[in-house]
Each structure stands twice: as C-alpha cells, then as structure tokens.
C-alpha cells in the first residue's frame, strides 16, 4: 500500500482496487518487494487489509492486488471455509494489527464449491477431512438453491456473501469492530480469465 493511504476501510479497498486495475491492464508495479522494504518490516507489520481467500493456486492475493511485503495479511483455506483458526487469525489482524478491511476472496470455477454442489446433488459426502470442507460450504449451496441459483459461479458468489456475513455473526470481536466503523468486510469474486476482482457484498462502509 502507498504511504498516502489512510487507515479506513474505504481507503484500503480503493488501494486494492487500484492495484487490481493495474494487474488487469498489465501495468503492475510490484511495489514493496525490495531489500529496503524487507529492512523496513523487521520491526513489525502494519498491513492495510486482511484477505481471507481460497487456497487455489491461481488466487495469489499479493499478485491480484499488486501489493508487496507487509501490505496485506493473508489467511487461506480451500473454498474460504471458516474454522476457529481462521476466526482467530482475523480477530488478531483486526484487534492487534488494527487492519481496517477484511476481504473475503473467492473465485469462479471453485473446486471446493463444485464438490459441495456435487455432494448435495448426489446426497453423498467425500471421505476424510474433505468432508468437513464440503459440509461447511453446503449451507451456501442450499441458500443459493433457495434463490434459484444452481450454477457454480453463481453459487460461488452466494458462498462469498454468506461467508462474509458469518464472520461477523460468529465473532463478537469482528462484529463490534464493524459496528464501531473500525473495519468493514467486503466479499469479492475473482474472474480467472479477466483477472478482475468484483465486489459481490459488503458489510460496513467501503465507499467512503
């Protein structure tokens, strides 16, 4: 993030959106990736946003938003599935690091969401711990179905919005931070072909 960005949810999102625009246009600057930045960060970190995203290898947040070392705090699970470790990490970023923005980042053609859709349709569950992932995504699949959404990408967007809402529902700390205006939660879907990060939901003020 640039030094001129202020510590508000809107400013943080605007900075990420500008970085994504550079990435899309092929004009990425790759900021804060040199030795001087490494030295600057040895005393601590002050990221401008936390990105809670899918683990998919095509979803590298620092590249998508054209940021560098120390700019964003990243938490990733397959299908951006919430668990206690995720909530603890997000609470740490907001309460200790004073991060003003949480980005829930999903993407089209998500394998985890596809698995949850397939499981719902076949009334079966995968083996091992993949079952836990699918079970945590299934409520979003059912919510999408109730709205008449059956395709994968539409279900991904519903899952992103549902996940963003669950963060503040399950964590009192995050709920209070949003209520106080200290942070906001924005749900974003990433278009693999275009490289575009589109907002699909928001909780709190990200417009400024």
Automatic annotation (TrEMBL):
| Keywords, sorted A to Z | Lyase, Zinc
Q: What SMART domains does UniProt report for this protein, alphabetically?
A: Pro_CA
Say if the entry is tagged with keyword Lyase.
yes
Superkingdom in the source lineage? Bacteria
Report the EC number(s), separated by commas if there are several: 4.2.1.1
Which Pfam families does the entry link to?
Pro_CA
Catalyzed chemical reaction(s): hydrogencarbonate + H(+) = CO2 + H2O
Q: Does the keyword Zinc apply?
A: yes
What the entry lists under InterPro entries is as follows: Carbonic_anhydrase, Carbonic_anhydrase_CS, Carbonic_anhydrase_sf
Identify the SUPFAM superfamilies for this entry: beta-carbonic anhydrase, cab
| Family classification | Belongs to the beta-class carbonic anhydrase family.
Described purpose of this protein according to its UniProt entry: Catalyzes the reversible hydration of carbon dioxide to form bicarbonate.
Database matches in PANTHER family: CARBONIC ANHYDRASE, CARBONIC ANHYDRASE 2
Q: What is this protein called?
A: carbonic anhydrase
State the species of origin: Nesterenkonia halobia
């Amino acid at each position: 993030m640039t030094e001129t960005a202020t510590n508000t949810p809107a400013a943080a999102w605007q900075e990420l959106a500008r970085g994504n625009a550079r990435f899309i246009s092929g004009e990425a600057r790759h900021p804060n990736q040199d030795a001087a930045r490494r030295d600057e960060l040895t005393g601590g970190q002050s990221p401008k946003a936390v990105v809670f995203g899918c683990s998919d290898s095509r979803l590298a947040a620092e590249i998508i938003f054209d940021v560098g070392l120390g700019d964003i705090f990243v938490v990733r699970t397959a299908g951006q599935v919430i668990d206690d470790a995720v909530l603890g990490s997000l609470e740490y970023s907001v309460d200790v690091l004073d991060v003003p923005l949480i980005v829930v980042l999903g993407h089209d053609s998500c394998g985890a969401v596809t698995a949850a859709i397939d499981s719902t349709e076949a009334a079966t569950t995968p083996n091992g711990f993949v079952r836990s992932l699918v079970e945590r995504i299934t409520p979003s699949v059912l919510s999408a179905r109730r709205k008449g959404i059956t395709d994968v990408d539409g279900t991904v967007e519903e899952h992103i919005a549902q996940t963003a809402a669950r963060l503040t529902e399950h964590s009192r700390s995050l709920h209070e931070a949003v209520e106080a205006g200290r942070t906001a939660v924005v749900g974003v879907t990433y278009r693999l072909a275009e490289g575009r990060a589109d907002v699909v939901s928001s909780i709190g003020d990200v417009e400024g």
